[in-house]
Amino acid sequence: MKATSSRQALLAATLFAAGMASAPAADALQGLPAGPLGESIQRGHDMIMNTNTDVRVKGFVGNALTCNSCHTDGGNNDHPGNFLATATKFPSYSKREDTVITLEDRVANCFMRSMNGMRPSTDSGVVVDMAAYISWLDRGKPILGGATPVPAKSPYAAMLKSAGEADVQAGAKVYDAHCASCHGAGGAGIAGSFPPIWGPDSYNAGAGLANVAKLATWVKGNMPLGNPSLSEREAFEVALFVDSHPRPDFMLSQHLRPGSAADDYNARVRSETDTAQGNLRKAGLDLKLLP
Known about the structure:
This protein is 40% helix and 2% strand. It is mainly alpha-helical and 291 residues long. The chain has 2 domains: 14-147, Cytochrome c-like domain (Cytochrome Bc1 Complex, Chain D, domain 2), CATH 1.10.760; 156-282, Orthogonal Bundle (Cytochrome Bc1 Complex, Chain D, domain 2). A two-stranded antiparallel sheet has the order 1-2. The termini are far apart.
């Protein structure tokens, strides 16, 4: 019995660490409707969990991340990055895109930025299935639309204004103590288990997490995985450290399918390029990029 229990405990720990086992995500699929809708929701969940290996969706991915890398537990938890009360907020105005977008737009745009890949059509099976799953998580909730609640004020924007090299170095120490064991000393992650968080196989400079304040909020609520326990200052310092490393630039034209009409991309922004250094400078911080 003891040997069996030990093996079971080891298996559970291994699956959790690899992001392959999640009770909340499994619960999200209970009671699916029969027929095509339930099948679509199931496909959407599966693609979110295995985005860079699922044959239906991996062609749109340009790095080593999955949707579940940021939306842990398939987005079915109360951590920053969750999908709960996401579908109810659309259609909504997007400041970044400077236009009103749909949930399908938001899903498709994430492929360009966080996944550093190609933007699928908003009526493609990939986007429809993912939107079906995200909407399923919000079933029965009122549509918020333009009445989206104002989020709690973040402390990180103020921290960024006064940040300097010492904060980056402090972030390096936080990273070594709490992050390197999973994401590696060089930020490359562990294939099949933990995602890269900088470099060519991570999110690009146009992604939401390339914003230090947003990354700090995400880190505070999610990391270390399974035991988010960093202080606000530690979360900020390590986010600053991570986003001080180079990552791919974002240029819109490189992420649209050949021959796409301008209106296929629902935004007034037609071109945009940036670097990690540029993001920091826009925030008022001029730091040398780390190697």
